[in-house]
Design brief:
The structure is a single chain. This protein is an alpha+beta fold and about 260 residues long. It has two domains: about 190 residues, Alpha-Beta Plaits, CATH 3.30.70; about 45 residues, no CATH class. Strand 2 and strand 3 form a beta hairpin. Helix 1 packs antiparallel against helix 2.
Length: about 260
């Protein structure tokens, strides 16, 4: 049976993306945005996730989630199914809401988490929804919560972006310095390339080759344990969008 690649690990950090079915607009008004945000916050509480960052656009969302209990799959299943049920019930419609399985890329925390948070925070600007100076007014993003400290829920820690921008403090001055940092980053294509902005939504992992090889070794060890009790667990390749690199790394190790 074709096998995809879902990596669950305790304290793993993930970039999660999904879109409306056929790229339809889901978050068309404040009520839809708020409903999704409420579901997201409930999922974080239920699953004991740490929400490092997020941004909800018109037809898709970006989440940056840490899973202390290694429960990404069950948490995302609850989040998407609960939101879909509430959406359908409120609008009295039926049918598929999201385009398919959400995409999750596991993140190498030390080297790439900060860059990912910058990428997520700049989404509304790159989509020409707001200017960088208006970014603080974009309500459906962890950047808004960064500037509204008293409204942050206990499970949200959006200070990783400040740390990655030069160890900035979570103070009015530090947050203003971060805005200036984002202005510089937005105008510097070379810096964006160095931070791998073009790879933040591609593949299966965000990190260096050494990090990815270590992840695949973990999966291989787990697979061997499965094969010891279930011969059908054997697999010669991973199936799914963006997994060519994972297969090539795995096959190179086997050779």
């Amino acid at each position: 049976m074709p096998r995809g690649l879902r990596i669950e690990r305790e304290n793993g950090v993930y970039h999660i993306i999904n879109r409306g079915n056929y790229r339809q607009d889901l978050f068309i008004n404040e009520g839809a945005h708020l409903s999704f945000e409420n579901c997201l916050f409930e999922a974080c509480e239920k699953s004991e996730w740490v929400l490092e960052g997020f941004c909800v656009m018109t037809n898709h969302f970006h989440l940056v989630v840490r899973t202390p209990k290694g429960n990404l799959i069950s948490g995302m299943r609850w989040l998407q199914s609960t939101f879909a049920n509430r959406y359908h019930r409120f609008r009295k419609i039926h049918g598929k809401l999201f385009q398919g399985r959400y995409k999750s890329l596991i993140v190498e925390e030390d080297s790439y988490l900060g860059a990912l948070l910058h990428y997520v925070h700049l989404n509304p600007v790159r989509a020409s929804m707001v200017s960088v100076d208006q970014l603080k007014s974009y309500r459906w993003s962890s950047y808004w919560y960064l500037h509204n400290k008293r409204k942050r829920p206990a499970f949200m820690d959006c200070t990783g972006a400040l740390k990655a921008a030069g160890g900035l403090a979570d103070t009015p001055k530090g947050r203003e310095q971060y805005l200036n940092y984002l202005k510089w980053l937005l105008a510097d294509d070379t810096a964006q390339k160095a931070m791998a902005f073009d790879k933040m939504c591609r593949g299966w992992a965000i990190g260096a080759k050494k990090f990815k090889k270590a992840l695949l070794e973990e999966l291989e060890d787990a697979k061997k344990e499965d094969e010891a009790t279930d011969s059908s667990a054997a697999v010669d390749r991973y199936y799914g969008e963006g997994l060519r690199e994972a297969n090539e790394l795995r096959w190179a190790k086997l050779l």
